[in-house]
Amino acid sequence: MKIGIVGLPNVGKSTLFQALTKKEVDCSNYPFATIDPNVGVVQVPDLRLAKLSSLSNSQKTIPAIIEFVDIAGLVKGAAEGEGLGNKFLAHIRDVDAIVEVVRVFEDESVVHVDGRPNPERDIAVLETELILKDMESIEKALEKAAKDAKTGDKKTLLRLEELKKLQTELASGKKAWEGAENLLTAKPILYCFNSQEENQALKEKFPNSVFLNLKKELEEEEKLPELAREAYRLLGLITFFTTGEDETRAWTIPKGSKAPRAGRAIHGDFEEKFIKASVISYEKLVEAGSLAKAREAGWLRTEGKEYLVQDGDVIEFKI
Fold it and tell me: C-alpha angle with apex 110: 208 to 38, nearest 5 degrees?
């Protein structure tokens, strides 16, 4: 899973990326210090993993991960190419979700592209650019769909109607609904306010948010696990585990996945050749003390292709 870190120039994007990934990046005090995206992998904190590894005496413990991409700053006019905007907007298209860094702190020594920070205005500037780019994409898709609809095909006519609805929504300043046409504004957004303290008014207006003093986080890393967990939740992801003497590992899948789809996280063959799975919840396995004891107690369930995997399931696949 890939999450893009976006925001106006000089709001703390590269500082957040460096704090998360421990990668040295250019955090210079001028716009567009980042040109090409930096990419880094972050482990998702999960206390259950260590417990399972201890139960199985595993040689290796492998956590779930999220890939973070530090994308250069967007400015007003990006959708028309300002600040190399088209290139940066294309990078956003490649991610699954967005962490939007918003500067709250005031510091005359740190340049702001609009003179001084105004969180709500700055969010509106960035998201307007995403909407404008989506409108451009919809207009192109509408042209093609209108030509295809001349055949009278019902499926094509329905798509044409959906595109028109999307165009109306975007034109009114609203973001696209989740999953729509791979549009930028359809991607889930987590707001990361770069602030020395939590602002209740902003928290109420933007509930999918965290407040971090990014300069301090770069040194102390107090609240970074909270951001990783929030990003995981925002994406609608859950974790299942495999455990044994060789390794205990956390696997990432979308919430609502059936057992064969969970198997795909391990290898494509696990989905295609799935027969059944032995399943036990993390809590029941810890209560049993080991897989062997859980098996003796009859706590391992045999599940088929329609089983909906739950967060914390420990699974053995049979293919």
Answer: 60
Using an 8 Å Cβ cutoff, are 240 and 312 in contact? yes
Reported as a single tens digit per residue, the pLDDT across 275-302 is 999 999 999 999 999 999 999 999 999 9
Q: What is the pLDDT of residues 215-255, one digit of tens each?
A: 888 788 778 887 888 888 888 889 999 999 999 999 988 89
> Angle between the 154-171 and 119-148 helix axes, to the nearest 10 degrees?
150
Q: Mapping DSSP to helix (H, G, I), strand (E, B) and coil, where does residue 266 land? A: helix
Nearest to 238 by CA among 316, 314, 315, 312: 312
**Residues across the chain:** 319
Closest alpha carbon to 299 in 318, 311, 319, 316:
316
Tell me the CA distances in angstroms from 105 to 193, 198, 206, 213, one per residue in order: 9, 11, 17, 9
Candidates 313, 319, 269, 307; CA nearest to 48 is 313
